[in-house]
Amino acid sequence: MSQLFEVHPQNPQPRLLKQAAQILHEGGIVAVPTDSSYALVCRLDDRAAVEQLRRIRGVDDKHHLTLLCRDLSELASCARVDNRQYRILKLGTPGPFTFILEATKEVPRRVSHPSRRTIGLRVPDHKVLQELLALFGEPLIGTTLIAPGETEPMNDAHEIRERFQKLIQAVVDAGACPMAPTTVVDLSGDVPELLRRGRGDPAALGL
Question: What is the tens place of the pLDDT at every residue in 156-171?
């Protein structure tokens, strides 16, 4: 039975988030709220957890997983970022944007795109997730929590726990999320490319 941590959305209890962070350090998968929707997250360098995360979602290795980072400096340690890219990233972080960038050698090859060596990165603007990332101490790898065969993310923590209680180790409940996907921008090429229009306004990035 997965654990349920009910936290205040603006003033989350550190004791509960520390327990969630410990579960992640021990190789667990946790459902967390973000500024777009609930997501499944695990340790970046835990092969078994990453494989289980893909199985739960029903996606293969060509599906971009996303690195969730505390801030821009943490993001820059996971991706190759030039001055042009950095200016765009600064405009969109923290916020509901996912950026496709070339991964650094510090990122395990199994979590990047198999042929392009790219990865999705974002800095979420969500108080609970930001504090969990700070307690965890490193980026988390994640994917939007969409059940296999469905198209919309799940948004009720109790439903998530009931459905996935044998597959994930914990759910952090901070109430409903906005239920709008992130805007995805590919910065890995010579020219920024808008791949998906979502909650983030591309005009804020000058696109």
Answer: 999 999 999 999 999 9
Pick from 9, 8, 17, 34: nearest CA to 135: 17
3-state secondary structure the chain: CCEEEECCCCCCCHHHHHHHHHHHHCCCCEEECCCCCCEEEEECCCHHHHHHHHHHHCCCCCCCCEEECCCHHHHHCCECCCHHHHHHHHHHCCCCEEEEEEECCCCCHHHCCCCCCEEEEECCCCHHHHHHHHHHCCCEEEEECCCCCCCCCCCCHHHHHHHHCCCCCEEEECCCCCCCCCEEEECCCCCCEEEECCCCCHHHHCC
pTM of the model: 0.92
pLDDT in tens, 62-114: 787 899 999 998 988 889 999 999 999 999 999 999 999 998 887 876 666 66
Under CATH, which number does the domain 3-205 receive? 3.90.870.10
Cα–Cα distance, 110 to 89 (Å, whole number)? 24
